[in-house]
Amino acid sequence: MNKVEGLHHLAICTADMKAQIEFFTDKLGMELQALYWMHGVANTWHGFLRLNDESSIAFVCNPKIADIPRTLGESHAGNPGANCAGGAVQHIALKVRNHEELLAMRDRLRSKGVPVMGPLDHGMCQSIYFAGPEHLSLELSYSDEPINAEAWIDPEVVDLAGISAEELARYKTPAGFADERGGVPQPELGSAPGPHMTNYPRGAYEAVMGMSDEDTLHMVTNEPPVRIA
To answer: What's the structural domain count of the chain?
Structure first.
């Protein structure tokens, strides 16, 4: 069955690329693995901090971001129990291997002056909580075993969310998809239910989506900024 299998990178806007790099390298031990001009986006940097060989936390930075207000309860939650706007990131939970590593990371953070709450035992995982720069709400967690859907899908919450028994069964076991090897054409934008990407300059979304897949593949540079002999 074709399905998403993990996180490649999670991209976060920042007004201070250096401060985020400093925090994630010094406080969390994540290596800087890329920092370059973002492809196809004017006057913008893209930075990647390594989680593992397949996953990264990324940051996007340009001068205009500093002018956008960070508002607690709207753009940012500020802590793992607070609200923010729908579609915004409430908190980010990163994985550690086991309880010993969780405590070691708590020690690392506290030794560098970062207040840390926890561990909290959630049953499915144990977690610690702390803040990152620019009101990021962060968590480190580990689980001893995979989450058991039969134990952790609450019938009361299912009902309150308006999910029927048929829908629940479908959510727990999504239908497979017959691979067509990239042969499915772009849907007509005017009639496609979406969701659609937004906040482009007028006409830009339609122009990009109207390009052939082959032209899109080669629309930005793909060479690294530093040549390695």
So the answer is: 1
